[in-house]
């Protein structure tokens, strides 16, 4: 796969979990649509690494185990294991979707999913102030019973809709499987990695410093940005449910943005122009990536316009 002159060599494409739909059937359809654009990037001579969100998917898995536990006593499944399951089945759909597209084009490239752990700092301040809601809703009485039985779990009222467990959202520090990912890239694999921001793990010094999972959620955009840096990528694509980053979003004064410097994007983010739990993490990740090395660009756009975004006809570019 030779690289045309002037084309970026290594690209990380991050697919938003919500953009993949809310059911396995929706996910397969959207993955198939995205596969066409992904293969187009490779045909231009680029290496690609794919990462993805998993919010709806991991929630579905965890809720299913919780319901089965209440109904028939199935063992509960904690967040790290649910995250690993979501990485596996989303990766499976991506491998099949890309495989179908390769078959249409008579290509024989390899594609592999890496179940990916990301090391976090056990002293990260977020562990003292968990805020990320996960899992099903409970009554206040049920939540108090669970907290009494399992003091490490924290539940809060979620906007009057019921009580939900909250977990930490620590900063990602190290991709445990980075050598494996790079090895696959060097051998011309299309790699799927760091799904859902990666599975958070910490060192277990009671067990020779081996890794153990922790109930936390790494922001998927922060995980994707770390993956792009570790893989020495030139471009980071963040594909989501909207076509552009916008100011005054959802108002009559909404203005779509197409090209921003990292400094301009940071000023708007500091002014609160972007949604805290939706667009702002993407913009912050884009700023960090654009500043990490001269010439790097992050492009934020819509998954259903992936081909247009990747060819420069849609989306918002953030650069140094």
Automatic annotation (TrEMBL):
GO BP term, pick one:
L-arginine deiminase pathway
The UniProt entry, under SUPFAM superfamilies, shows:
Carbamate kinase-like
- Source species, domain of life: Bacteria
Which reactions are catalysed by this chain? Answer: hydrogencarbonate + NH4(+) + ATP = carbamoyl phosphate + ADP + H2O + H(+)
Q: Does the keyword DNA damage apply?
A: no
What keywords appear on the UniProt entry?
Kinase, Transferase
What Gene Ontology cellular component terms go with this record? cytosol
Is Protein biosynthesis among this UniProt entry's keywords?
no
Matching CDD domains: AAK_CK (cd04235)
Signal peptide coordinates = none
The record's listing under InterPro entries reads: AceGlu_kinase-like_sf, Asp/Glu/Uridylate_kinase, Carb_kinase
Molecular function GO terms recorded? carbamate kinase activity
Specify the Aspartate/glutamate/uridylate kinase domain's residue ranges. Answer: 10-300
Sequence similarity: Belongs to the carbamate kinase family.
- Protein name per the record: Carbamate kinase
């Amino acid at each position: 796969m030779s690289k045309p002159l002037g084309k970026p060599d290594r690209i990380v494409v991050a697919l938003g979990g919500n953009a993949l739909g809310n059911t396995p059937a929706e996910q397969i359809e959207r993955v198939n649509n995205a596969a066409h654009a992904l293969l187009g990037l490779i045909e231009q001579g680029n290496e690609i690494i794919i990462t993805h969100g998993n919010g709806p998917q991991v929630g579905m898995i965890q809720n299913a185990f919780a319901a089965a536990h209440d109904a028939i006593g199935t063992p509960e499944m904690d967040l790290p294991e649910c995250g690993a399951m979501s990485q596996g089945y989303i990766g499976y759909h991506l491998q099949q979707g890309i495989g179908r597209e390769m078959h249409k084009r008579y290509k024989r490239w390899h594609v592999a999913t890496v179940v990916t752990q990301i090391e976090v700092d056990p002293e990260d301040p977020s562990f003292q102030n968990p805020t990320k809601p996960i899992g099903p809703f409970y009554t206040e009485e049920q939540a108090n019973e669970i907290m009494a039985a399992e003091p490490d779990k924290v539940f809060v009222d979620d906007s009057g809709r019921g009580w939900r467990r909250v977990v930490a959202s620590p900063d990602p520090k190290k991709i445990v499987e980075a050598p494996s990912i790079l090895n696959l890239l060097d051998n011309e694999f299309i790699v799927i990695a760091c799904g859902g921001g990666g599975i958070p793990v910490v060192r277990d010094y009671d067990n020779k410093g081996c890794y153990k999972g922790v109930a936390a959620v790494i922001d998927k955009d922060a995980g994707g940005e770390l993956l792009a840096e570790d893989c020495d990528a030139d471009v980071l694509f963040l594909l989501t449910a909207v076509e552009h980053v916008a100011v005054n979003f959802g108002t009559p004064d909404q203005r779509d943005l197409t090209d921003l410097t990292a400094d301009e994007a940071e000023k708007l983010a500091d002014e609160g122009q972007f949604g805290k739990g939706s667009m702002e993490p993407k913009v912050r990740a884009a700023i960090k990536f654009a500043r990490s090395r001269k010439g790097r660009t992050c492009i934020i756009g819509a998954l259903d316009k992936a081909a247009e975004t990747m060819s420069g006809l849609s989306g918002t570019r953030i650069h140094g």
